[in-house]
Write a structure and sequence with these properties.
With 497 residues, this protein is mainly alpha-helical. It has a single domain (10-199, 226-495), classed as MFS general substrate transporter like domains (Growth Hormone, Chain: A, Up-down Bundle), CATH 1.20.1250. The protein is 80% helix and 0% strand. The protein is built from 22 helices and no strands. The longest helix is centred in the middle third of the chain and has 34 residues, at 280-313. The two termini are 34 Å apart.
Length: 497
């Protein structure tokens, strides 16, 4: 074991963060390039692009829970999490190489359905990300004690991951999205495979034998996610709806509303139940519930921002005086077109979002020591809600769009850092992979709801509605977070400060 690992130094935290950084860079590349390349290069519309993005949640449902469960109980390649991080990284790198070659693959295979090919590649890419991300997060919890050190591990994860996420958008503007995919293939491979070989995992976790007696069946998992049943039902419906839109259109919106209403009602029930039930399980369900609404907003933003820019911002622009184009021209020395304008605004907007996401976790960590992680997290989400509403009502101007993304980034910095340290103190430490996989369902099932949001926007042609709905969803998340209790370690720390 490396001495830096024994002492839990900052250098060790940095190395420990690199596999998750590979995932973060992969996600940033997806956000920058996937919708753009499908729309501009292959001509897919908003509903078709949203359908391709469904590959991510589908991969998450199967990948994270199953891999999490397996990685808690296997040992090979001298690791519990290591094999999945390496395998996921290799597959992800290959899929990034395949994505810009959809046309070539279509000709070679004789498959003319571009949506099918794009969906398969996106599914494999997202599966690789999900296979990697759960073990990459779980290994941080495996190797750190509860409290300050674990929070530090996740903060380091987000700072480094966020920094390279910013780099992904920067590279998109300098070299273009197709070159970014090639860079991502190399980066994901290197950061997934090599750093994890330097880290020594414990062969036995404390209390592992006792935890093995606590066998979670598929039925137990299904019972534990009952707050998410509404999202699960609508997610399945969304897949079917893509193929039978005419026949099912009349029930689409009522079912979407019903799924959301069900989730809110179950949330109220869980909050009332928690007055008597003080268990970690009920707190875990409250966190899942609160987290779901956050992810409907962020996933909808990731998938549809390009369409918002095309319809709400581009018509108001003098294309000879676009800040994002001037920035891209300064970096590359190449003149920009109308199509690259949309890509440049997307990249610069998400560069700002991720720059804030990379910088703010350190500040949030310091604030959390004073007021607690849950309060800090909730306050950060308020900034995201304000950012969404600001874009909705003032985002027709390019600079206002960037200002809104800055505000949204404050919440984003908490969503991908603090929440994991909160969750890990409410679950069985020796089944970290399994429970992190279950928790991820509070990410992937709401992501499937973005298909419903896309359908409403497509029907109404009201692209302002995208960010209004995002703001409403985050406000719902904030309300539910107000009822989540502080983890034990933070509560103790705050009470003694």
């Amino acid at each position: 074991m490396l001495e830096i690992q024994k002492k839990l130094t900052n250098t060790f935290f940095a190395i420990l963060a690199l596999p998750a950084t590979a995932v973060g860079f992969a996600l940033s590349t997806q956000i920058a390039a996937l919708s753009w390349i499908l729309n501009k290069k292959f001509g897919l519309n908003i509903h078709e692009v949203a359908f391709v993005w469904l590959a991510g949640p589908l991969a998450g449902i199967f990948g994270q829970v199953i891999v999490g469960m397996i990685s808690d109980n296997v040992w090979f390649m001298k690791g519990r999490r290591r094999p999945f991080i390496i395998i996921g990284g290799i597959i992800g790198a290959l899929m990034f190489l395949a994505l810009p070659q959809i046309g070539v693959i279509s000709e070679a295979t004789g498959i003319t359905n571009i949506i099918l090919i794009a969906s398969v590649i996106a599914l494999m890419l997202d599966l690789s990300i999900n296979v990697t991300f759960n073990p990459a997060r779980s290994i941080i919890a495996d190797l750190t004690p509860e409290g300050k050190k674990r929070t530090a591990g996740y903060v380091w994860m987000q700072v480094i991951s966020g920094t390279f996420g910013v780099l992904a958008y920067f590279l998109s503007m300098v070299f273009g999205n197709e070159t970014l995919l090639l860079i991502a293939a190399i980066f994901v491979f290197v950061c997934s495979v090599f750093p994890i070989l330097l880290i020594e995992e414990p062969r036995e976790l404390e209390g592992l034998e006792e935890s093995k007696k606590d066998n979670h069946t598929v039925l137990d998992i299904f019972k534990s996610i009952f707050p998410l049943y509404g999202f699960l039902v609508f997610g399945v419906f969304g897949l079917i709806f893509h193929f039978y839109q005419v026949e099912l259109r009349s029930i689409h919106n009522p079912l979407l509303i019903l799924a959301l209403v069900y989730t809110v009602i179950i949330g109220i029930y869980i909050i009332l139940k928690s007055r008597k039930d003080k268990s970690d399980n009920i707190e875990f369900q409250k966190i899942m519930l609160a987290h779901t609404f956050t992810w409907i907003a962020f996933q909808s933003m990731f998938v549809m921002t390009g369409f918002f820019i095309d319809k709400q911002i581009i018509p108001n622009l003098d294309l000879t005086n676009v800040f994002a184009n001037k920035f891209a021209e300064f970096l590359t020395g190449v003149g920009q077109t109308k199509d690259t304008t949309t890509g440049n605004i997307i990249s610069l907007g998400f560069l700002i979002l991720n720059a804030v996401g990379a910088i703010f976790p350190m500040a949030l960590s310091a604030i959390a020591k004073k007021i607690g992680r849950v309060r800090t997290y909730t306050a950060a989400l308020v900034f995201s809600a304000v950012g969404y509403f600001y874009i909705a009502f003032f985002g027709r101007h390019e600079i206002n769009f960037y200002s809104g993304m800055f505000l949204t980034g404050i919440g984003w910095s908490a969503v991908i850092s603090i929440v994991f340290s909160i969750v890990t103190e409410r679950i069985n430490q020796n089944k970290m992979g399994l429970f992190m996989g279950i928790f991820n369902l509070a990410v992937v099932l709401p992501q499937m709801m973005s298909q419903g949001v896309a359908n409403i926007i497509s029907e109404t042609q009201n692209y302002q509605l995208l960010y209004i709905l995002c703001g409403v969803f985050v406000c719902l998340s904030v309300v539910f977070w107000l009822f989540v209790k502080e983890p034990r370690a933070t509560a103790d720390l705050v009470s003694h400060s």
